[in-house]
UniProtKB/TrEMBL annotation:
The chain crosses the membrane at residues 21-41, 53-74, 80-100, 149-169, 181-206. The lineage of its organism: Bacteria, Bacillati, Actinomycetota, Actinomycetes, Kitasatosporales. This is Amino acid ABC transporter permease. The keyword Calcium does not apply. Residues 15-203 form the ABC transmembrane type-1 domain. It comes from Streptomyces auratus AGR0001.
Amino acid sequence: MNVLLDNLSLYGEGLLGTVELTVYASLLALALGFLMAAFRVAPVGSLRAIGTVWVNVLRNTPLTLLFFAVVLGLPRFGLVLPFKLFAVLALGCYTSAFICEAVRSGINTVPTGQGEAARSLGMSFPQTLGDIVLPQAFRSVIPPIGSTLIALAKNSAIAGAFSVVELLGVYKPLSEMGYSIIWTFVWIAVGYLLVTLTISAVFHVLEKHYGAAR
């Protein structure tokens, strides 16, 4: 317990950093994921191509490599941001590819007849998708989206290697101060457990209220 109690502020700062990264990157991932899912089922070929390229490139790129590309590559094009924002961009864009596929799978569970009926009533594609398809698809994609955001929370540990304050980075100063590395990591693991269990609880409530009956 001494490792935790003697360095409570350090652990708290790291936990707060992980929570902030998770929240901001999750919002970005959800926004981009739903947008790319809409692109992938759009009747316009160019939009489908954009969605396909986005998913295939990001899903098949190691997250660490994406961090290097964002942190080291974007400043060469004049985009200079704090490292935390670079981390949010890398995490959010990477996770959005998985969100996109989860949402697209949910869209595919909606009977095609409903979309055809909406179009026969004169509804546009955005209206059909937003008012008819997505509300039904959302019910079936709550569990996979929750799992994806839990993975995002754990992936945020990579940001510590790029000078971003987060929970895993706590071990460096504590190791230099001579604290037990085992107990240092035990309390780090407890911190990540708190974050992931919170996400799990939120999505359990969402699934209970909005999820599809099984």
